[in-house]
Amino acid sequence: MNIIIITMSTYQNITLSSPTQNKIIISLYDKPKCASDIALDLDIAFPNISTNLKKMKENDIVVHEREGIRKKYKLTKSGNQMYDFLSVHDKQFQSLVEAYKFEKRKSK
């Protein structure tokens, strides 16, 4: 049995250090996406998305699977736990989630 211990300080370090990474977590929560789709989804420059995805992969927040020449990124178990934890305990993150959902509804 694997036990994952996650502390509030771990998540606070991530959320305080990178709002872009928080937005990526929110974007990937529903389904895997390639980096260019994430960039379009969040209206953030591709190089910024790419750099943050690399850091997130190094920290076991995302993984990717190849689909032809594209890499589809998805949240790891830790990434999903992070989303769940932050969406309950972090007001700033909650605001980002609501803004993301609002934009998605507006664009339909």
Question: What labels describe this entry?
Answer:
alpha+beta, 13% strand, 6 helices, 68% helix, 108 residues, globular, 3 strands, 3-stranded antiparallel beta sheet, Arc Repressor Mutant, subunit A
- Counting DSSP E segments of at least 2 residues, the number of strands comes to 3
Largest sheet: 3 strands, antiparallel
> Mean of residue pLDDT?
86
Using only C-alpha atoms, the radius of gyration works out to: 14 Å
CATH superfamily: Winged helix-like DNA-binding domain superfamily/Winged helix DNA-binding domain
Uncertain stretches: none
Topology pattern, helix = H, strand = E: HHEHHEEHH
* Strand order across the largest sheet: 1-3-2
Helix content: 55-70%
Distance between the termini: 43 Å
Strand content: 5-15%
Q: Describe the global form.
A: globular
Structural class: alpha+beta
Q: Helical element count?
A: 6
CATH topology: Arc Repressor Mutant, subunit A
Number of domains: 1
Record the SSE blueprint.
Blueprint: H1 8-17, H2 19-30, E1 33-34, H3 35-42, H4 46-58, E2 62-67, E3 70-75, H5 77-89, H6 91-107
Antiparallel strand pairs: 1-3, 2-3
Helix pairs in contact: 2-5, 2-6, 3-4, 5-6
